[in-house]
Design goal:
The complex is a heterodimer.
Chain A: H1 2-16, H2 19-88, H3 99-108, E1 113-120, E2 125-129, H4 144-151, E3 156-158, E4 162-163, E5 176-188, E6 191-202, H5 203-211, E7 220-224, E8 230-232, H6 236-240, H7 248-252, E9 257-263, E10 266-274, E11 281-287, H8 295-340, H9 353-393, H10 397-412, H11 416-434, E12 440-442, H12 443-460, E13 465-471, E14 479-481, H13 486-497, E15 504-513, E16 516-523, H14 530-534, H15 550-563, E17 568-574, E18 578-586, H16 595-600
Parallel strand pairs in A: 13-15
Antiparallel strand pairs in A: 1-2, 1-6, 3-5, 4-5, 5-6, 7-8, 7-11, 9-10, 10-11, 12-14, 15-16, 16-18, 17-18
Chain B: H1 2-26, H2 29-32, E1 40-45, H3 52-68, E2 70-75, H4 83-94, E3 100-103, H5 108-117, E4 123-126, E5 135-139, H6 141-155, E6 162-165, H7 172-187, E7 193-195, H8 200-205, E8 208-211, H9 214-225, E9 232-236, H10 240-248, E10 253-256, H11 259-274, E11 282-284, E12 287-290, H12 297-303
Parallel strand pairs in B: 1-2, 1-3, 3-4, 4-5, 5-11, 6-7, 6-8, 8-9, 9-10
Antiparallel strand pairs in B: 10-12
Classes of the chains: A alpha+beta, B alpha/beta.
């Protein structure tokens, strides 16, 4: 249940994450696992190598001690050989042993030995140096060194350390010794008998050899015999006093090499080396804390490295994922902006191959959509323009009826000239209106169309107003939409001149400013209030009086649909002063050209 | 701006971690391991000096001082067994920034009275346990007395005359040994006599002499060795001479304990007290060694210290 909840929570978090965060977290997680794995592996490897190095160091120390100890023991053995082969073997001891020679040998080696003594097979003293008086009650034949020598006559025997208790001391002192004993052949009166040669080595000699070892701060070396009895230990007295324990019995069972043991709660590296001939074992002990680098220091270093590596991974992965996902994020922003509408954004084509391809595809798709949308808009505009133009090109039946009625009236009243002029103007008006179906005609024709229309209206309204066309700019070679002036003139007559007496004035003025063409239709009629002026282009404006203003709106929409929204009609009016309607057009010098719309697109 | 600040923090953390890594590698181990315990100064106040037993105690003390990072000051009295001088010396040590003292009391009562109201220095006693001392290190004095009495009872019949030598009445340890021996002997039908000093004439009239500390035992053994028909000599405490006499039969039996261990443990407890840790009594095992047994494997280690 808890697992499912955690999975659900993770899934929800994952779905809300950005791709950069997902990449960054994934890379970091993988890298952290890798770093941890490598870190732990290296730590274990380091520990192993460290242990091996320490083991080798211990082994070297033990080898050195072994060499020294072996040399020392061999020296003692050579002494025993010398005594045996030079003094005992070929001498008849009937008159006693030559103690002078024995003393000489002792003097040469007194730094490392306590005494040399020869006993017969019953334990009686044959000769000794330097202490020649045996203690009362001492029976050498009961002592272990004596029995061992006679039990295995071919061997040289070494005892464990003990206090020498054979000879009387002149100063009451005592000596800890290690006894070397061997069976010897004694000749007395020509007869041969067994005896025992005893060389008591000074324990301090062994101690000096073993003491001068270096096994690190807490390491030490001790020596045991084959049974695990202590020969030497740096804290021997503490062991003898029972204040300390040593794992010497177990160490005696170990083979040569490096071993691990846990003794009294302490894990220790134990290196063992057997001393040749004696069967003694040198035991080097190094507690784990004494190894080259302490556990605390190693762990601190490992933790520091891991923390640094993990944070470095987070840092680098953050940068890398940001770099990798930047094109995707830009793409996503562009697509989102496209979805919101408005201006089409520039879709980037950057990043790695797949992202580039994706960007390219989206760019193509957006471009196609853009063209399709433009086509749809264009079609809509064309359709709307066509509707407007059809509407515009339709002849107001009232205008036609009134004109024809005026012609009849003029004919009946004998005003044939006016009748002819009116019919002629009407005919030319229609011809320009048709213009073979063209939408764009020359400005000249449009002005003529306005003139013919005004000619008809002046006759109808009995010259209640004057009309003139003022060309401030040469109009030759200029083109414009057809039928854009006439609806404005119609409005000026119906709304400006209808109530006027005979002083009405309507002026059409044409001028050019740079690439803009302006056509003003001015009247001095009633003018308009600002409210009416503001509502002229409002398509929802209710109809008022003659005309509904649809013609004006029609002209404005046609101009904007053809040339763009920056063009169209502008109105200037003051009540009782008159009205100016300004047509703003681009300068067009060809019937096919449409500069304003090109710019707008 | 916010993003730049975030990146700056990241860089700072990164640099700090890198520095930590370098420091952890380069820092000396001493910075990472717990510091060694404070070095303490311990004064050792003996009541006697120059005995061979004392030299073994001293070896044990020096080994403990080396192990526990302590410095020892061995102080001898101008007049042996002068309790007042010992107390004055102890008082002076407190003013010399000494952290603890190990004392072999010369005047147990006087020292105990002092320690009951004077707490400036933790005191560990050897030989004699004091009620107001921090701890005592040594054998059970009652056990020593009982062992010696047991051996006498085994060797002799109740009609024999035994002298119990109380050479230092101010020393509680030997006195307790004596009392235990007397009680046990009296219970066994003996009528031991107590004397304060041993003389040749006294020994000539006695069948046996029991001494309760090494110096007196040595003297008794020497006197016995000069007599044609010496009394049986029993005693407590190990010294070179007493061991030599034990070997040759000058001493019949000896109650022995490890002087090396007593020295070691006394300093161990003194260091603990100096470091405000609890110090506790350490009672050493006692072994009774009879004449001719000195070279037995276990007795040998007890009677003959390895390193002299």
């Amino acid at each position: 249940m808890l697992l499912r909840a955690l999975v659900g929570k993770f899934t929800r978090s994952y779905e809300k994450m950005s791709i950069q965060r997902v990449i960054s977290l994934t890379f970091t997680a993988v890298a952290v696992v890798g770093v941890l794995f490598i870190g732990l592996s290296l730590t274990l490897r380091y520990s192993t190598v460290n242990e091996k190095v320490q083991a080798q160091a211990s082994q070297q120390v033990l080898n050195q001690v072994n060499l020294s100890l072996d040399s020392y023991l061999r020296r003692m053995m050579r002494i025993s050989d010398t005594v045996y082969y030079r003094l005992l073997k070929n001498e008849d001891l009937t008159d006693g042993l030559s103690e002078e020679k024995l003393a000489l040998l002792y003097e040469e080696n007194r730094d490392s030995m306590v005494s040399i003594a020869v006993f017969d097979s019953r334990g009686a003293l044959v000769g000794a140096t330097p202490l020649a008086i045996m203690k009362e009650g001492v029976n050498p034949s009961e002592q272990s060194w004596f029995t061992a020598a006679l039990a295995q006559i071919e061997n040289i025997h070494f005892s464990t350390p003990h206090v020498q208790n054979l000879f009387q001391s002149t100063d009451g002192s005592y000596h800890w010794v290690i006894s070397l004993s061997r069976q010897v052949e004694l000749t007395r009166g020509g007869a041969s008998e067994s005896g025992v040669l005893l060389v008591d080595m000074s324990f301090s000699g062994v101690e000096q050899i073993c003491r001068s070892t270096d096994l690190g701060t807490d390491g030490y070396l001790y020596v045991v015999d084959a049974d695990g009895e202590l020969i030497y230990h740096p804290r021997q007295q503490l062991l003898y006093a029972g204040l300390l324990q040593e794992n010497n019995k177990a160490a005696a069972q170990l083979s040569d090499g490096t071993h691990w043991e846990t003794f009294q709660g302490t894990r220790r590296q134990v290196t063992v080396k057997t001393v040749g001939y004696t069967g003694w074992k040198l035991v080097g002990v190094v507690p784990v804390q004494g190894l080259a680098m302490s556990t605390a220091q190693l762990m601190l270093f490992v933790v520091s490295v891991l923390l640094f590596s993990i944070f470095l991974m987070i840092f680098v992965n953050g940068r890398l994922s940001a770099h990798i996902t930047q094109p995707i994020r830009q793409l996503e922003q562009a697509v989102r902006q496209t979805g919101r509408g408005g201006e089409m954004p520039q879709v980037p084509e950057a990043g790695c191959y797949e992202v580039q391809q994706l960007g390219h595809s989206i760019r193509s798709m957006v471009s196609t959509m853009r063209h399709l949308m433009n086509d749809v808009i264009q079609q809509e505009e064309d359709k709307r323009r066509s509707e407007l133009e059809v509407l515009q090109s339709q002849i107001n039946p009232h205008f036609l009826y009134n004109t024809l009625d005026s012609v009849i009236w003029l004919t009946e009243s004998g005003r044939y000239e006016d009748s002819i002029r009116m019919v002629t103007a009407l005919g030319r008006l229609f011809r320009i209106s048709l213009s073979r179906g063209k939408r764009v005609i020359s400005l000249e024709s449009e002005l003529n169309h306005a003139g013919y229309y005004m000619t008809i209206q002046q006759i109808r309204y009995k010259n209640k107003f004057a009309f003139n066309i003022q060309k401030d700019t040469p109009v030759e070679g200029l083109y414009c939409l057809k039928l854009i002036i006439q609806p404005l003139l119609e409005n000026a007559i119906y709304h400006g001149m209808a109530a006027e007496d005979d002083d009405g004035q309507i002026t059409v003025r044409v001028w050019r400013e740079g690439e803009d063409l302006y056509i003003d239709v001015e009247d001095n009629g009633l003018g308009m209030t600002p409210e009416v002026l503001a509502s002229l282009l409002d398509e929802n404006r209710p109809a008022q009086g003659k005309g509904s203003g649809i013609g004006v709106q029609n002209v404005h929409r046609r101009i904007q649909l053809t040339y763009g929204n920056q063009y169209g009609l502008e109105f200037y009016s003051e009540p009782d002063e008159g009205t100016t309607v300004r047509i703003h057009l681009p300068v067009v010098t060809s019937p096919e050209e449409n500069p304003g719309k090109e710019e707008a697109r | 701006m916010k993003r730049t600040g975030y990146q700056l923090w990241q860089m700072i953390v990164l640099i700090l971690l890198a520095a930590a890594m370098v420091v952890s590698l380069a820092a000396p181990e001493s910075l990472l391991t717990p510091p060694a315990p404070r070095r303490v100064e311990i004064s050792i106040l003996m009541r006697q000096s120059g005995t061979s037993a004392w030299s073994v105690v001293r070896q044990g003390m020096e080994q403990a001082a080396e192990d526990l990072n302590a410095e020892l000051r061995f102080l001898a009295l101008e007049e042996e067994n002068n309790g007042e001088e010992q107390i004055q010396l102890l008082r002076s040590q407190a003013q010399m920034d000494v952290d603890a003292a190990v004392v072999v009391p010369a005047d147990c009562q006087g020292l105990d009275e002092l320690l009951s109201q004077w707490k400036e220095l933790p005191v560990i006693t050897l030989e004699s346990p004091l009620e107001n001392a921090q701890a005592f290190v040594g054998p059970s004095n009652e056990e020593v007395g009982t062992l010696l009495a047991g051996q006498v009872i085994e060797d002799c019949s109740p009609g024999k005359k035994f002298l119990l030598v109380e050479s230092h009445p101010g020393c509680q340890g030997p006195s307790r040994r004596l009392e235990s021996t007397r009680e046990a002997l009296e219970q066994a039908g003996f009528a031991p006599e107590v004397c304060s000093e041993i003389t040749a004439s006294q020994m000539e009239q006695a069948d046996g002499v029991i001494c309760f500390e090494p110096a007196t035992l040595e003297r008794a053994a020497v006197l016995a060795s000069q007599m044609e028909d010496p009394p049986l000599v029993y005693g407590a405490g190990v010294s070179d001479r007493s061991v030599a006499q034990l070997e040759v039969g000058g001493i019949k039996a000896l109650a022995a304990w490890s002087d090396y261990a007593s020295g070691y443990l006394a300093v161990t407890q003194a260091v603990a007290a100096a470091r405000d840790q609890s110090a506790e009594d350490k009672i050493l095992p006692v072994t009774l060694v009879q004449e001719g047994e000195t070279y037995d494997q276990n007795h040998e280690k007890l009677l003959y210290p390895v390193f002299q």
